[in-house]
């Protein structure tokens, strides 16, 4: 049974890569890393009822399980290459597996990402994906390089996914489809991450929320960060359906956006804005790196704003 | 919270490796594969109540989650290097995490295996490990190279783990500690797998049961395999506590043994027996590769024996 399921997913995601010596079907895959490249590796699990609501379509689950991992590669500036998928499900329903495979393949295909291994087990619904991508020695984007005076920027818009989750509680969520779609089908900023190599001084993807994730950059870099709340990029969908205070809290602490947040020397910020606009996601200056520690959020008067949420805590949720 | 837990496990498993450029603590790990080596990658999940009984000690869970993955590397003849651990648990109990970390580290340390990444999520207890090991181009042990006339051999003894699982149902399992230990603390045959490089024509590890796993070699190699039931190596613990018919069924179909089963040209079998004896696990000739398809089990009179179990099916279990 195990091989049938993984085999089904493989068929949806078939891609030929010279660096895959042995793909699915043996005890392990055998792959070759190109000369002169290093390997970025990440693993992330989605649990039903924690990372996606019960009732999420299998295609959305397949997409999101890969997206959150590709987002980790994006935050390193890595080029995606291979993935493994470990799926635990209560049963073997055919439509579920086909749906999950389709969603996974939809996102994998444009990146020529090869599924090289997997495991299927019986149990409560959880999906774990491990991804591998290539980096050039010394060019990976770390969390530890932010310097006082750097500008802080984010791609895309913030808060939509958390707002989408809130909207799912409504009897009819269809007016909020744009927000729900951002929750279920996050776009990993892979090209944006690659464009940051050699320019950004630190980078992270926003999974737990802007303030929480910037906190990791502060800790790793030994700096503080001041965010200017009025600068935060928010979508028209978010601002249409939510009052300003909620929209701001979602943007600061909602999480699940999978945008990139990065620091960059002030004299490179303009060039990056243009690059990111060409890539379709855009990038907005939201703050700056300062001496000290931790993240402060400043309101339009320069006073300190206290967000009501500071990020998801999976064990406290 | 996520980082605290993985960080705790990392402390138990700390090992310095020059090929780990960035370990735990960023969005992805960065590693370097040595020049001239390829990478073997496997992933496997253990689910509470499916792959280990409720009540299994956290240390045993940590050990086994790594062991079943190292066994996949062993079956390829690969040298272990790095692992990632994705843990889903209902809560954040400190003793549980310390126990799991200790069990994982006990097995990882002798191999100098580095934990380079992970994820902790809230949900029903499941443990997914992804492992990476090195192979030399062209030397990985595949399932597809068995040739008619080859001898079929297995390391160690068969059936103990399945017998151990049966014993756990007893009110007092202490007389069966040797069998239960084989269930909870399987020994991946890493050195044995490395010794098979360039000699074995096909290899697989026994996770689903001897007959089921040899069936994969038959399919991949386009051959049949005849097993001689009287030759199957069984431990004295198994033969002491179970009647012959049960002991034979456990050995043929019980699964969870994590011994290696391999095919080898007849003129290399003696040499391999000596090598495996030196490595401490031993290896026993149990059958031969024949024309045809599928696995036949022959009794002491050369008649076909029908085992009552042919391997675990995780979805039917």
Automatic annotation (TrEMBL), chains A, B:
<feature type="binding site">
    <location>
        <position position="312"/>
    </location>
    <ligand>
        <name>substrate</name>
    </ligand>
</feature>
<dbReference type="InterPro" id="IPR016188">
    <property type="entry name" value="PurM-like_N"/>
</dbReference>
<feature type="binding site">
    <location>
        <position position="208"/>
    </location>
    <ligand>
        <name>Mg(2+) 5</name>
    </ligand>
</feature>
<feature type="binding site">
    <location>
        <position position="143"/>
    </location>
    <ligand>
        <name>ATP</name>
    </ligand>
</feature>
<keyword id="KW-0067">ATP-binding</keyword>
<dbReference type="GO" id="GO:0009030">
    <property type="term" value="F:thiamine-phosphate kinase activity"/>
</dbReference>
<keyword id="KW-0460">Magnesium</keyword>
<dbReference type="InterPro" id="IPR036676">
    <property type="entry name" value="PurM-like_C_sf"/>
</dbReference>
<feature type="binding site">
    <location>
        <position position="27"/>
    </location>
    <ligand>
        <name>Mg(2+) 3</name>
    </ligand>
</feature>
<feature type="binding site">
    <location>
        <position position="72"/>
    </location>
    <ligand>
        <name>Mg(2+) 2</name>
    </ligand>
</feature>
<protein>
    <recommendedName>
        <fullName>Thiamine-monophosphate kinase</fullName>
        <ecNumber>2.7.4.16</ecNumber>
    </recommendedName>
</protein>
<feature type="binding site">
    <location>
        <position position="205"/>
    </location>
    <ligand>
        <name>Mg(2+) 3</name>
    </ligand>
</feature>
<dbReference type="Pfam" id="PF00586">
    <property type="entry name" value="AIRS"/>
</dbReference>
<feature type="binding site">
    <location>
        <position position="119"/>
    </location>
    <ligand>
        <name>Mg(2+) 1</name>
    </ligand>
</feature>
<keyword id="KW-0547">Nucleotide-binding</keyword>
<dbReference type="InterPro" id="IPR010918">
    <property type="entry name" value="PurM-like_C_dom"/>
</dbReference>
<comment type="similarity">
    <text>Belongs to the thiamine-monophosphate kinase family.</text>
</comment>
<feature type="binding site">
    <location>
        <begin position="118"/>
        <end position="119"/>
    </location>
    <ligand>
        <name>ATP</name>
    </ligand>
</feature>
<keyword id="KW-0418">Kinase</keyword>
<dbReference type="Pfam" id="PF02769">
    <property type="entry name" value="AIRS_C"/>
</dbReference>
<feature type="binding site">
    <location>
        <position position="44"/>
    </location>
    <ligand>
        <name>Mg(2+) 2</name>
    </ligand>
</feature>
<comment type="pathway">
    <text>Cofactor biosynthesis; thiamine diphosphate biosynthesis; thiamine diphosphate from thiamine phosphate: step 1/1.</text>
</comment>
<feature type="binding site">
    <location>
        <position position="256"/>
    </location>
    <ligand>
        <name>substrate</name>
    </ligand>
</feature>
<dbReference type="InterPro" id="IPR006283">
    <property type="entry name" value="ThiL-like"/>
</dbReference>
<feature type="binding site">
    <location>
        <position position="27"/>
    </location>
    <ligand>
        <name>Mg(2+) 4</name>
    </ligand>
</feature>
<keyword id="KW-0479">Metal-binding</keyword>
<feature type="binding site">
    <location>
        <position position="72"/>
    </location>
    <ligand>
        <name>Mg(2+) 3</name>
    </ligand>
</feature>
<feature type="domain" description="PurM-like N-terminal">
    <location>
        <begin position="25"/>
        <end position="134"/>
    </location>
</feature>
<dbReference type="InterPro" id="IPR036921">
    <property type="entry name" value="PurM-like_N_sf"/>
</dbReference>
<feature type="binding site">
    <location>
        <position position="207"/>
    </location>
    <ligand>
        <name>ATP</name>
    </ligand>
</feature>
<feature type="binding site">
    <location>
        <position position="51"/>
    </location>
    <ligand>
        <name>substrate</name>
    </ligand>
</feature>
<feature type="binding site">
    <location>
        <position position="44"/>
    </location>
    <ligand>
        <name>Mg(2+) 1</name>
    </ligand>
</feature>
<feature type="domain" description="PurM-like C-terminal">
    <location>
        <begin position="147"/>
        <end position="297"/>
    </location>
</feature>
<keyword id="KW-0808">Transferase</keyword>
<keyword id="KW-0784">Thiamine biosynthesis</keyword>
<comment type="function">
    <text>Catalyzes the ATP-dependent phosphorylation of thiamine-monophosphate (TMP) to form thiamine-pyrophosphate (TPP), the active form of vitamin B1.</text>
</comment>
<feature type="binding site">
    <location>
        <position position="72"/>
    </location>
    <ligand>
        <name>Mg(2+) 4</name>
    </ligand>
</feature>
């Amino acid at each position: 049974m195990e091989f049938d399921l993984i085999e089904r997913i493989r068929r949806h995601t078939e891609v030929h890569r010279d660096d895959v010596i042995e793909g699915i079907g043996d005890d392990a895959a055998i792959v070759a890393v190109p000369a002169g490249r290093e390997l970025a590796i990440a693993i992330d699990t989605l649990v039903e009822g924690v990372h996606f609501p019960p009732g999420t379509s299998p295609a959305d689950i397949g997409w999101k399980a890969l997206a959150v991992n590709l987002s980790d590669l994006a935050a390193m500036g890595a080029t995606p290459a291979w993935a493994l998928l470990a799926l635990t499900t209560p049963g073997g329903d055919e439509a579920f597996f086909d749906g999950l495979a389709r969603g996974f393949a939809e996102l994998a295909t444009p990146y020529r990402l090869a599924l090289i291994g997997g495991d299927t087990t019986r149990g409560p619904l959880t999906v774990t994906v491990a991804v591998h991508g290539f980096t050039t020695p010394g060019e990976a984007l770390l969390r530890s390089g932010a310097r006082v005076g750097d500008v802080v920027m984010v791609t895309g818009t913030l808060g939509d996914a958390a707002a989408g989750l809130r909207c799912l509680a409504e009897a009819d969520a269809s007016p909020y489809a744009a927000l729900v779609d951002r929750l279920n089908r996050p776009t990993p900023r892979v090209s944006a991450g690659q464009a940051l190599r050699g320019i950004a001084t630190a980078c992270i993807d926003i999974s737990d929320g802007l303030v929480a994730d910037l906190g990791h950059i502060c800790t790793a870099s030994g700096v503080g960060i001041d965010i200017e709340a009025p600068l935060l990029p928010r979508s028209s969908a978010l601002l249409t359906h939510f009052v300003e205070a909620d929209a701001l809290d979602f943007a600061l602490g909602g999480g699940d956006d999978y945008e990139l947040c990065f620091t960059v020397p002030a004299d490179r910020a303009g060039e990056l804005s243009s690059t990111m606009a060409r890539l379709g996601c855009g990038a907005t200056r939201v703050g700056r790196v300062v001496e000290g520690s931790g993240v402060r959020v400043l309101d339009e008067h320069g006073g300190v704003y206290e967000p009501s949420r500071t990020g998801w805590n999976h064990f406290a949720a």
